[in-house]
Amino acid sequence: MNPSILVVYRPAAGRYTAQFRAVVAAAAELGVASVVLLPTGWEAPEAEGLPQYRADLDDTAAVRAAVDSIVAEHRIERIFPLFEGDVLPASRARRDHGIPGLTPDQALNFRDKNVMHRRAEELGVRVARSCRPDTVTAVAEFAGQVGYPVVVKPYAGWACGNTYRVDDRAELDRVWGEMGDDRHEYRVEEFIRGAEFHVDSLFQGGEVVFEQLSQYTYSVLEYRDEPGGTISRKHDLTPREQRILELNAVVLRGFGLSTGVVHAEFFLLDDGEIVFGEAGARAGGGSIVPAVEAGRGINLAGEWCRLELDPDHRPAARLGPEVGTEYLSSGEYGTITAITSAAELTALEGVLDADVWKRVGDVLAPPTASNDVLGWYVCEGTDFEDVKARFKTVRDSFRVETGA
């Protein structure tokens, strides 16, 4: 059998299409075929011509059984899960068949926030104070110690789904009712006030071979109130920003990462202290991958594949100008009757790329997660403030009309 890779791919709303294509193309360049594991019932035109298998990707046992069938027919060299929720099942499938990559013990450092924060503390990195929501009284006492607001979140969640900012006891009681019998799936953290950054990294053999620091232009928890934006910080980094990059390397090595891609988040407090937020062993979500590609000339998912398959590969990234990306959102709800196209957005000055996921006839409802948006765009500028000003220009040009 010829060597192949397995891509665990969820073709939802175009969010991972570019990543999928980049991984498949990178493998093909190296003479390695691609096999695709899709969710049950889903079709993916971009996977046409490739061997396709399907399973309930939310059922770890079903994923492992599917991989059993796949490795019986293909010589799988590596497994690439593109979505956060597939990282741990993929690690278990690797262990089942001796496939190199993150082991379950290592993957838990990137998926279980209880494990993640405990391990970061062991590495000497500051994290938010937290407690288990065993009882509502325990949470109220914790909030009394650290002060409201507190954050209630799933210990293995993503994109702020089922995540709550709790500002007082009345709000706590309401959220407690929503959690119901699932409180064992949650954790409670103090609310960290500070500038939010993320680092998108590529590792090979335990060493950083690419890193980019970026700063969010909004509070990730407040995605219902403002569009999610992030701007690269590549030029004239401050000592504190350099320190974030240093701590990122400490955390990822300490989590057991050898070769792979990681999106990690940090807070920079007013007093200069740095607090680790979380890290996912996958390329950044939303439009982070196309933003890095537009600004640095590399696709993070494709480079991950090359690094896994070719030990001598090094990303040939350029520095380029500062680049920002922002989600497209709208306060309009109902059936879309008109919407600005991606072509109209890329015609605007400074816009490098754009994708509009929604079309006329789609129905808009209030968002339930931070990536529940209409699309994204990428633009360039001279510095952080210049890019941020361009955001407003593009945002003002984006129009959505809805009807009943």
What does this structure look like?
The chain contains twelve helices and 19 strands. The chain has 404 residues and is an alpha+beta fold. The strands form four sheets. An eight-stranded antiparallel beta sheet has the order 13-12-9-10-11-14-18-16, with helices on both faces. The chain has a four-stranded parallel beta sheet with strand order 3-2-1-4, sandwiched between helices. The chain has a four-stranded antiparallel beta sheet with strand order 5-8-6-7, with helices on one face. A hairpin with a 5-residue loop joins strand 12 and strand 13 (274-280). Helix 4 (104-111) crosses helix 5. The longest helix is centred in the middle third of the chain and has 16 residues, at 239-254. The protein is globular and about 60 Å long.
Kindly summarize this structure in a few lines:
The protein has 404 residues and is an alpha+beta fold. It is built from twelve helices and 19 strands.
Note the gap between the termini: 56 Å
Largest sheet: 8 strands, antiparallel
Task: State the shape.
Answer: globular
Number of DSSP helices?
12
Strand order of the largest sheet: 13-12-9-10-11-14-18-16
Structural class: alpha+beta
Spans of 5+ residues with little confidence (pLDDT < 50)?
none
Beta-strand portion reads 25-35%
Strand elements, count:
19
Radius of gyration equals 21 Å
- Report the average pLDDT across residues: 93
Portion of residues within helices? 25-40%
